[in-house]
Design goal:
332 residues; two-stranded antiparallel ribbon; 4 strands; two-stranded antiparallel sheet; 14 helices; mainly alpha
Length: 332
């Protein structure tokens, strides 16, 4: 009797998380029917778009048994640099801003990757250090001053808010990043090697996969996405300062874990991460609506996240590795 395909095995977790998210949405809607209004849903997705992007980048690193604590600091530094660049050269348009943000973010990610790959520094230690370095460089670049909306060009600010087919460019960018990440992991050799490197580094090494190189690649991808998100963050909130996205890395990791990405590597996917980020986005947007005091919102949010993570961990204790390996074992 043929074994069930990986897709069928994987479906219950992601479907369960999706169902939990829908139940949460339904519960809030019952109390406040206007929450399900199409305009509010667009706003909710807009609010969650940055978290989705950050979480997808973090997922690449977690898949290789690493962790990137510097994603928010990367975004703050990149956002400040492109804001200063735009203030100095407002007539150059948006393309140089996008190129600089992605290239600079990737370079910062490469630095993290080299520390983990060439110098064998544990990723949590390396990125904890670069987190402080990048935050410090934001202060050095700006002199401690803010770059506000009056110093940014109208195109720099309006690009992320421009509507396309009913939703903002920011939301479309998040969707495009998610689709590209899905295709990369599913259909490219490098994407499959990320899973192999995190699932069993020793076996991956015997198979000719350079585990360190794969982890470095993951950091570069994470950094590039964080850099792009840095510009989008600054443009959306129309201000650049030292503490942009401070502490956001914890939400990013929470979205990944809730979405089914294992911190021990080799397990996870884009669909789960997107749903995990939306789950957190609904909580964040619902708590003020249902009248939870701002003093208790963080505690309630943390409690819900903890419960979701425990449920997720229980589900994955029953899993048996990654699809690429299962598919290979099931091959002719």
């Amino acid at each position: 009797m043929p074994k069930p395909s990986f897709t069928l095995k994987k479906l219950p977790h992601e479907a369960g998380l999706g169902l939990l998210t829908l139940l949460l949405l339904a519960a809030v809607t019952i109390a406040f029917p206007s929450f399900i209004h199409i305009g509010n849903l667009k706003s909710l997705f807009d609010d969650t778009a940055l978290l989705i992007m950050f979480a997808i980048g973090e997922m690449f690193v977690l898949l290789t048994r690493g962790v990137d604590l510097s994603v928010a600091a990367n975004a703050a530094l990149t956002g400040m640099v492109v804001a200063l660049f735009n203030a100095a050269h407002p007539g150059l348009g948006i393309v140089p801003v996008l190129v600089i943000s992605i290239a600079m973010g990737a370079a910062l990610g490469l630095f993290n990757g080299l520390l983990a790959w060439k110098f064998r520094v544990p990723s949590i230690v390396a990125t904890l250090g670069t987190l402080s370095v990048y935050r410090g460089l934001v202060y050095v670049a700006s002199g401690g001053a803010w770059v506000n909306s009056g110093q940014m060009s109208p195109l720099f600010l309006s690009f992320v808010r421009a509507p396309v087919l009913g939703i903002s460019v920011l939301s479309w960018i998040a969707i495009i990043v998610a689709v590209l990440a899905f295709l990369f992991l599913r259909y490219t050799v490098s994407g499959r090697n990320l899973y192999a490197a995190g699932n069993n580094p020793n076996a991956a090494g015997y198979a000719g996969i350079d585990v360190g190189r794969m982890q470095c690649l993951a950091f570069i991808l994470s950094g590039a996405i964080a850099g792009l998100a840095g510009y989008l963050w600054v443009a959306r909130f129309a201000v650049a300062y030292t503490d942009v996205a401070s502490g956001f890395e914890l939400q990013v990791i929470a979205a990944c874990v809730i979405g089914g990405v294992s911190i021990t590597g080799g397990v996870g996917g884009v669909v789960g991460v997107v749903i995990g980020a939306l789950f957190l986005g609904i909580i964040k947007n619902a708590l003020p609506v249902v009248g939870i005091s701002p003093f208790f919102q963080m505690a309630v949010s943390g409690l819900v996240i903890t419960i979701a993570v425990i449920l997720n961990a229980g589900t994955y204790r029953k899993s048996h590795g990654r699809r690429i390996l299962e598919r290979a074992e099931a091959g002719p």
